[in-house]
Amino acid sequence: MPVSIAVLAKQVIDPEMPMAAFRIDADAKAVVPPSNIPPVVNGFDENAVEAALQIKDSQEASITVISTGTSFALDVMKKPLSMGADELVLLQDDAFENSIDSFFTAQLLAAAIRKLGGFDLIICGRQASDWDNAQVPLGVAEILGLSCISLGKKVEIKDGKVSVERITNDGYEVVEAPLPALVTVSNELGQPRYPTLRGIMAATRKQPTIWSSADLDADASQLEPRITLQELFVPVRDQQCEIIEGDDAADAGRQLALKLREAKLI
Amino acid sequence: MADESGVLVLGDSTGGELSSMSRELLTAGRKAADDLGEELAIGLLGATLDQPSQQAISYGADKVYAVTHPQLAQYQVDLYLAAMEALCRDVSPRIVLIGRTNEGRELAPRLAFRLGVGLAQDCLEISVDAGSKTLLANRPVYGGNAIAVVRCNYTPQIAAIRPKVYEPLEPDSSRQGQVVSFPVELDPSQARSQVVNVVEEAAEGVKLEDARVVVSGGRGLGGPEPFKDLETLANLLGGAVGASRAAVDSGWVPSSYQVGLTGKTITPEVYITVAISGASQHMAGCSGAKVIVAINKDAESNIFKEARYGVVGDWEQVVPAFTEAVRELTQS
C-alpha cells in the first residue's frame, strides 16, 4: 500500500515584498494585497511539500495538497503539483474568509480530510506568514484525534511510524509516533526543490478538485468565530539612529567602540 | 459553565525553580486579576513542586495548584495537555495565560482546541475590560509588520504570551497564598509520541537567551567563516553569538542560533547586528533589546530604523577595527 500523505497549504501575500509596499486598510481591518506582487504558497507549507516529496523519493506515496480560501491564483497553488505532488483540493467559498480565527479554518480542513477518507500522514508548515497564528495544524490534529509532532526539520516513515527530528531550544530531538499522525515542519527542513519541466507540464494538465461550503460536512456550532479582530495597525518606529562616521569604514568601527564605551554599554 | 472566575497561569519549573516564563506570566496575570477583582492562580506541573510553589506565591499568585504525577517529571506533550485540560475544566477560570515557549507553541493551541475556545497567540500585551470582563490582546501579525488587537469570544479566554515582554515582579516572601494539591490521573498510553534521542547543538559558553551582549550575523556575511570573528567579538564582550534566519537557512550556523519570530526571543542590554537587514521577522526576536547597534553597508537598510547606533560600511573593514578597539578598551 502506498503511503497516503496530505499537505495543508495556504496562499498568502508574498512576505518578501518590499516593506514599503505593506499597507493596511484600518477600517476593513485587513492588509491590502499589493497590486503588482502575486501571492505565493506560504513558505513553511512549501517546506511541508518538500518533506512529503522526500518520503515519496524513497517509497511509494501519494501526496494530496489541500487549501482553503475565498479565491485562488491557480498557477500559484499548482506549484506543489509541479514540484511533484499528485492531487490538489481547493476549499473555495466566499464564506472561507482568511480571518485571524484559526478555529474555523481548522474545522474546514478537518472536514475535507474526513471526506477524503483520511491520510496516513498530514504534513503542514509550522505557521502562515500572514496571521502567524501557528494553530491550524495543531487544531486539525486535535479535531481528528491524531498523534501530533510539531517543528520538524526531518520527517521519515519507517515500520508504520513517523520519525521526526524536532527542533528544540538547544538543538533537536528525535520523536516517533504511530500513524496516522500530523507533523508540522519549519524552514530548517531545507530549501524546497524547484519544479521540474516535466512537473510543470504534468501540473498544467491536472485540474484541482474544488469544494464549496455545501460539499463539506462541518458542524455549524464549530464554525462560530472563537477570536474577533478588534483593530489592526502598523506600529510606529521612533528610533533615531546615530550614524557613527570615521575617516574610513575601519575608523568608523573604532569610533563606534569609543561611543559604546562612553555610553557605558561595553 | 456560568461561574467562570479568575486568572489561571499555566506554569512550570526548571531545575527545581519556578521558570522565568512563569514569573513573567504572573506579572501579566496579577494585573489582569486585579483589574477583574478576582483571584490569580497558577497551575504547576511536575513531580516535586514545593520550592516553585512557594516562589509562585512570592511572585504574585494567590493560589497554587500543584499538579503532581510521576509521569509529569519529564515534559511529554500529550500528558501535559491531559493534565492542563483536567485542571482548566476543574478550576473554570475566566482567563488562562500560558507562555509561548517552545513547549507552549504546541501546548497552547492544542489546549484551546480541546476546550473548544479561541487562543490569542504570541501576545505582546494583554489587558482586561473590567466591565465586560473580556481579555484584549495585542499581537504582532504579518511577521511583525502589523499589530492585531484581538478578543476571545469564548471562556476560558486563552492568551499565549511571548517570552521576555513582561518583567517578573519583585519577589515578596511575606506574601500569603494557598497551595492546593491537584492530583491527576494519567495513563502512560495517552503519550502518543516518544522522544527517542536528544541532540544538543547550542554553542558553549553564555546562553544566547541570557547574554547581556549578543552579536548576530546575517546573510551579508556570505558564509560560515565570519561567524568565528563574531565569536571573538562576543567573547571579548562576555556575550553570545546569534544569527538571522537567512544565515541559518544557508547552513552557516545551527538553528539554535536563530533570533526572530520563529527563533529565539532575546532581550540583551546590547544587540550588535552585523550584515543583517532588519526584516520585521528578525526584529520580532530582538526588539526588546535595550540598545541595538547596526553594522551594514546599505544605508537604506531597515536595521538603521531600529538601531540606536549605526555604522554604514562593509563589515569586513568595520568589524576587525571595532573588535581591536573593544579589546583595547575592555582590557585596559
Strand order of the largest sheet of chain B: 7-11-6-1-4-5-12
Helix content of chain A: 25-40%
Low-confidence stretches of chain B: none
What gap, in angstroms, lies between the N and C termini of chain A? 63 Å
- Quaternary organization: heterodimer
User: Helicity level of chain B, as a percent range?
Assistant: 25-40%
Count of alpha/pi helices of chain A: 7
Structural class estimated from helices and strands of chain A: alpha/beta
CATH architecture descriptor text of the largest domain in chain A: 3-Layer(aba) Sandwich
Structural class of the helix and strand makeup of chain B?
Answer: alpha/beta
Mean pLDDT of chain A comes to: 95
- The tally of structural domains of chain A comes to 2
Q: Give the strand content of chain B.
A: 25-35%
The CATH class name of the largest domain in chain B reads Alpha Beta
What is the chain-wise order of helices and strands of chain A? EEEEEHEHHEHEHEEEEHEEEH
CATH topology description of the largest domain in chain A:
Rossmann fold
Structure commentary:
- The complex is a heterodimer of chains A (266) and B (332).
- With 266 residues, chain A is of the alpha/beta class.
- Chain A has two domains: 3-223, 3-Layer(aba) Sandwich (Rossmann fold); 236-266, no CATH class.
- Chain A is built from seven helices and 15 strands.
- In chain A, the strands form three sheets. Chain A has a nine-stranded mixed β-sheet, sandwiched between helices. A two-stranded antiparallel ribbon of chain A has the order 2-5.
- In chain A, a hairpin with a 2-residue loop joins strand 10 (161-168) and strand 11 (171-178).
- In chain A, helix 4 packs across helix 5 (136-144).
- In chain A, 47% of the residues are buried.
- The mean pLDDT of chain A is 95.
- In chain B, 28% of the residues lie in helices and 28% in strands.
- Chain B folds into two domains: 7-190, 3-Layer(aba) Sandwich (Rossmann fold); 213-331, Rossmann fold, CATH 3.40.50.1220.
- The model of chain B has no long low-confidence stretch (mean pLDDT 95).
- By secondary structure, chain B is α/β, with parallel strands linked by helices.
- The N and C termini of chain B lie far apart (67 Å).
- In chain B, helix 3 (77-91) packs across helix 4.
- Chain B has helices at residues 20-36, 50-58, 77-91, 104-115, 226-236, 245-249, 280-283, 303-306, 315-331, and strands at residues 7-11, 13-14, 17-18, 40-46, 63-68, 95-99, 119-123, 125-129, 134-141, 146-152, 157-161, 178-181, 194-200, 213-217, 240-243, 270-274, 291-296, 309-312.
- Classes of the chains: A alpha/beta (266), B alpha/beta (332).
- At the A-B interface, helix 4, helix 5, strand 9, strand 10 and strand 11 of A face helix 4, strand 7, strand 9, strand 10 and strand 13 of B.
- Strand 15 of chain A pairs parallel with strand 18 (309-312) of chain B, so a sheet runs across the interface.
